[in-house]
Write a structure and sequence with these properties.
Blueprint (H helix, E strand, L loop, with lengths): L10 H11 L4 E5 L5 H10 L3 E5 L3 H8 L10 H9 L3 E4 L10 E4 L14 H13 L5 E4 L7 H11 L10 E4 L18 E5 L2 H12 L5 E4 L2 H32 L3 H8 L23 H11 L5 H27 L8 E5 L14 H11 L3 E5 L5 E3 L4 E3 L10 E4 L8 H7 L3 E3 L12 E3 L1
Parallel strand pairs: 1-2, 1-4, 2-3, 4-5, 5-6, 7-8, 9-10, 9-13, 13-14, 14-15
Antiparallel strand pairs: 6-7, 11-12
Helix pairs in contact: 1-7, 5-6, 8-10, 8-11, 11-12
The structure holds nicotinamide-adenine-dinucleotide (NAD).
Length: 441
């Protein structure tokens, strides 16, 4: 592999490549959340000494004590790596002075106005700028609009006086991890990487190849940024389409689930997406708006994104109207009815409630005067605007209506149907069960 980095390359690059290849490079990861912690663990498992930096002290303490707070990362793995001196966490950015690489995996939420909130990336880069040193490879992994790495991160880092491609190296590599996915995780999801210069791309690719199964180099940071937005916009729009089809089918008395199942038998040209109570999580409802914000600046309207955003945003209202109708049919107004939500995380078998449609559904029902309870084995308590609810599996017995919002595998669906007066299934979790108290989306 030595031929990849001939002596004519900057000495910094040649030395970094050597340390990456022999795994003596010191790896830093800023932001130890759903993305950063699994990444840090993967590099530690590959043999690197990894330092995680997070501004939340409790997270750093947990890692150093060998405990994981991310479901997909077993505590046993963290404790082994911590005990072996391979994984360590700190709130102190000066640790980066010792690092050869730093990955940035901080949040990129939307502001209330649906504009990108870049404050976390800016804050992380301000800290990195103070400690950047020759030979450092910086890789942004947070999902963001095309141009962020070159227009925002690069100028901040070059304020240090160091030059990209010569003194330090800069890449964007989108994280594609899917929490709760048993088949695909950080190590076996192909890693797209694009650098500010071709040498940056080469070093970024070499870095990931040391710990991950496959790497897909692209020619620029902008391409790498756009790859992630295409993937998530594709998903968001197709979910919007199938949600609209679900509303149409409902109006026409057609079972949308049966339609999708049959359509999915077509061996080409169709890919099934499924309707549901609305989008959730930190990615699909958020990322496409990073793209539409950016394209608006170039005078291009992202009409598919706006439309799908609208349709998906209406789904909690649609679910509430289904609940109202179902209750009306059994002679009960929503007001003062006891509604029990099963599953409040944004999707199956995870504990993440960020942007979860369950939050909207609960608030809408409360506004109509319903008394709302919930149960979720992954979410013991749920913070709402003005109160905190606790998971209460017993409430199913006394509920006037049960609503499946997240189809966790831990639920006993036959028992739920048996014990519920009325049950609204927004996820087709009751597929195959026939009972008069079931109302499907
Ligand atoms: N969660 C996912 O499934 C997923 C998948 C692919 C991509 N992404 C993207 O990855 C990025 C991170 O998402 P996440 O889900 O891991 O977020 P997260 O909130 O779980 O983790 C982010 C971490 O960064 C820390 N942090 C914030 N600002 C910091 C700073 N200035 N310095 C140090 N630490 C800081 C937070 O304390 C937190 O621990 C986002 O851009 C997201 O869109 C997320």
């Amino acid at each position: 592999m030595k031929h990849l980095f001939p002596a004519s390359y900057p000495a910094n690059a040649v030395a970094l490549a050597e340390r990456l290849r022999d795994k003596t490079a010191r790896v830093g990861v800023v932001g130890l959340g759903y993305v950063g912690l699994p990444l840090a663990v993967e590099f530690a498992k590959a043999g690197f000494v990894v330092t995680g930096i997070d501004r939340i002290e409790a997270k750093c303490d947990a890692i150093n004590a060998g405990q994981s707070y991310i479901k997909d990362v077993p505590s046993g793995v963290v404790s082994q790596l911590a005990a072996a001196g391979k994984l360590h966490a700190t709130t102190d950015f000066s640790a980066l002075l010792e690092m050869d690489t730093v990955n940035i995996a901080v949040p990129t939420p939307l502001r209330k106005t649906k504009d990108p909130d870049m404050s976390y990336i800016v804050a992380a880069c301000q800290e990195i700028r103070k400690v950047i040193h020759p030979g450092l490879l910086v890789i942004l992994e947070s999902t963001t609009y095309p141009g962020t790495t070159d227009e925002l991160v690069l100028p901040m880092l070059e304020e240090s006086g160091l030059k990209v491609g010569k003194d330090f190296f800069l890449c964007f590599s989108p994280e594609r991890v899917d929490p709760g996915n048993a088949d695909f995780h950080t190590r076996n999801i192909p890693k797209v990487v694009g650098g500010t210069t071709p040498l940056c791309t080469e070093l970024g690719s070499l870095f990931y190849r040391q710990a991950l199964e496959s790497v897909v180099p692209v020619t620029s940071t902008r391409v790498a940024e756009m790859v992630k937005l295409l993937e998530n916009t594709f998903r968001m729009i197709n979910i919007g389409l199938v949600n609209e089809i679900a509303v149409m089918c409902d109006g026409m008395g057609i079972d949308v689930w049966e339609v999708i199942e049959a359509a999915a038998t077509k061996p080409f040209g169709f890919m099934p997406f499924y309707p549901g109570p609305g989008l959730g999580g930190h990615c699909i409802p958020v990322d496409p708006f990073y793209l539409s914000w950016k394209t608006k600046q170039a005078g291009i309207e992202a009409r598919f994104i706006e439309l799908a955003g609208y349709i998906n945003g209406q789904m909690p209202h649609f679910v509430v109207s289904k609940i109202q109708n179902a209750l009306n049919n059994v002679g009960k107004p929503v007001k003062n009815s006891r509604l029990h939500i099963c599953g409040v995380s944004y999707k199956r078998d995870i504990d993440d409630v960020r942007e979860s449609p369950a939050l909207d559904i609960i608030l809408l029902l409360q506004r109509l005067g319903a008394v709302v309870t919930y149960m979720d084995p992954h979410v013991p308590s749920l913070k709402l605007d003005n109160e905190t609810l606790c998971s209460d599996p017993q409430a199913v017995q006394t509920a006037d209506c049960v609503v499946i919002v997240a189809n966790h595998s831990a639920f006993d669906y036959s028992a739920l149907v048996r014990d519920s007066a009325l049950i609204i299934d927004t996820r087709n979790a009751l597929r195959g069960i026939v009972a008069p108290n079931i109302v499907r989306l």
